[in-house]
Design goal:
Layout: E1 5-13, E2 18-26, E3 29-34, E4 44-47, E5 52-55, E6 57-62, E7 67-68, E8 71-72, H1 77-86, E9 89-97, H2 104-115, E10 122-128, H3 134-145, E11 150-154, H4 165-178, E12 181-185, H5 189-201, H6 208-212, H7 216-233, E13 237-239, H8 245-256, E14 261-265, H9 267-271, H10 297-307, E15 313-314, H11 347-357, H12 363-377, E16 395-405, E17 424-434, E18 437-441, E19 444-445
Helix pairs in contact: 3-4, 4-7, 7-8
Bound molecules: N-(aminocarbonyl)-beta-alanine (URP) and zinc ion (2 copies).
Length: 463
């Protein structure tokens, strides 16, 4: 019997090793790793000489087809997973939202319907809880048993998503028993709202006031409170989209004390800054997302956090809204600009470029940040997140030298602008495989909507 596919002579990279080898695939799984594997009877041989062979990227923070801010995010499960695949991301974890008065099961069923028959690569869900009565605490256990093993809670967006401290504490206590993981949006929503109302009353309505009304202290305070609540509950906690050094310091202190506290940042906080609001006219709306962009000096602190394991994951918080049709809703009032930005496609290249090509950390650390640790934290390892016999053949043949200038003219996300327009990256995927099938080859998309499977996840494990 031959192999279905052999990826020949690439530099195989995992979180711990780099070595030259062939990787063979049978029925969507990695079946052998070794030098000079037999080519006879192989269905296909892909030459990866002088290329990296990476485990497929895992983006644990995306919002596809998400109703928000009076509209719906512009990528659905087909266009979003397709764009992800072009960038080397082969698994994503999106958010099923429980609206007030609903069961958590309704949220899950709704998002299963949205994704059904559409995704081109594998996906899973966290459940966003906005209303936590006794019944939902029970439901959390049931969802964990059914493979939805993480929950997002909000300390921001009062009246929409925000939960009070008692509810947050109850949810954390539930996960300390059922083995799930709480993902926290950490900003002090109450204080921010007071500042927002004051600024609006002063007639300040331009996009930049979105950033100016959400101070770093509001993020640091909530991060610290989330950590304290988790510590009291005896639960781990994962801080999402961490944007600034003040919050990073809270995570560092907690980790230095040995607490199971984890945090992700996103490419926008590493590449963009509050200076992006200097763009002319209403252009600043392109950068309205939450937490907001910070002063430039935070960027290097975040890069250093990634290098030193004070930050463990890079996700995108992909939540695209078209500039013309959707961001426009807030032309006269920044509070009406739908919050979110597009990023699912370029995470791997931006982090490789700024991290590895720029000499900040190793290619192994890169793999750890964008694939291995996300898989471990969110119950997907070792099926995903590594290159090992028995793992899914989600693989990226990555050219570390290829340069590319990011532009909305060439990207595959269904949105009319790029946050990273004009930025040149070094390092691009040449080919991407999802469970052994080539889904992207250069500029060509070879995948199929519906081929992506919903993943039931195991419990959180320490990376
Ligand atoms: O602005 C953002 N981040 N939109 C998506 C929702 C969230 O808070 O993650
Ligand atoms: Zn959030
Ligand atoms: Zn988000």
């Amino acid at each position: 019997m031959g192999f279905d596919t052999i990826i020949a002579n690439g530099q195989v990279v995992t979180a711990t090793d780099t070595y030259t080898s062939d990787v063979a695939i049978i029925e969507g799984k990695i079946s052998a790793i070794g030098e000079s594997l037999p080519r006879e009877n192989a269905g296909k041989v892909i030459n990866a000489t002088s290329k990296y062979v990476l485990p497929g990227g895992i983006d644990v923070h995306t919002h596809l087809d998400m109703p928000f801010g009076g509209t719906t995010s512009a990528d659905d499960f087909e266009t979003g997973t397709r764009a992800a695949a072009f960038g080397g991301t082969t698994t994503l974890i999106d958010f099923a939202i429980q609206y007030k008065g609903q069961t958590l099961r309704t949220a899950f069923d709704t998002w299963m319907r949205k994704s059904s028959g559409k995704a081109v690569c594998d996906y899973a869900f966290h459940c966003i809880i906005t209303d936590l009565a006794e019944a939902q605490l029970e439901e959390m256990n049931a969802l964990v048993r059914d493979g939805v093993t993480s929950f997002k809670l909000f300390m921001a967006y009062p009246g929409v998503f925000m939960l009070d401290d008692a509810s947050i504490f109850k949810a954390l206590r539930a996960t300390s028993k059922n083995g799930g993981l709480v993902c926290m949006h950490a900003e002090n929503g109450g204080a921010i709202d007071v500042i927002v109302q004051q600024v609006l009353a002063e007639g300040k309505k331009a996009p930049k006031y979105h950033a100016l009304t959400r101070p770093t202290t509001a993020e640091a305070e909530a991060t610290s409170r989330a950590i304290a609540l988790a510590e009291m509950a005896g639960a781990p906690v994962y801080i999402v989209h961490l944007s600034c050094n003040d919050a990073l310091e809270k995570v560092r202190e907690a980790r230095d004390r040995g607490l199971p506290v984890y945090a992700e940042t996103c490419p926008q906080y590493l590449y963009l800054s509050i200076e992006n609001f200097d763009a002319p006219g209403f252009e600043g709306a392109k950068y309205v997302f939450t937490p907001p962009l910070r002063e430039k000096w935070h960027q290097e602190k975040l890069w250093n956090g990634l290098k030193t394991d004070r930050l463990q994951v890079v996700s995108t918080d992909h939540c695209p809204f078209c500039f013309k049709e959707q961001k426009e809703l807030g032309r006269d009032d920044f509070t009406k600009i739908p919050n979110g930005g597009p990023g699912i496609e370029h995470r791997m290249s931006l982090i490789f470029s700024g991290g590895v090509a720029a000499g900040r950390f190793s290619v192994n650390r890169f793999v750890e940040l964008v694939s291995t640790t996300p898989a471990k934290l969110f119950g997907l390892y070792p099926r995903k997140g590594t290159i090992a016999v028995g793992s899914d053949a989600d693989l990226v043949i990555f050219d570390p030298k290829r340069k590319h200038t990011i532009s909305a003219k060439t990207h595959h996300m269904r949105v009319d602008y790029s946050m990273f327009e004009g930025i040149e990256v070094t390092g691009m995927p040449d080919a991407v495989l999802s469970r052994g099938r080539v889904v992207v080859q250069g500029d060509r998309f070879l995948g199929r909507p519906g081929a992506g499977e919903f993943l039931k996840r195991a419990l959180y494990s320490q990376p």
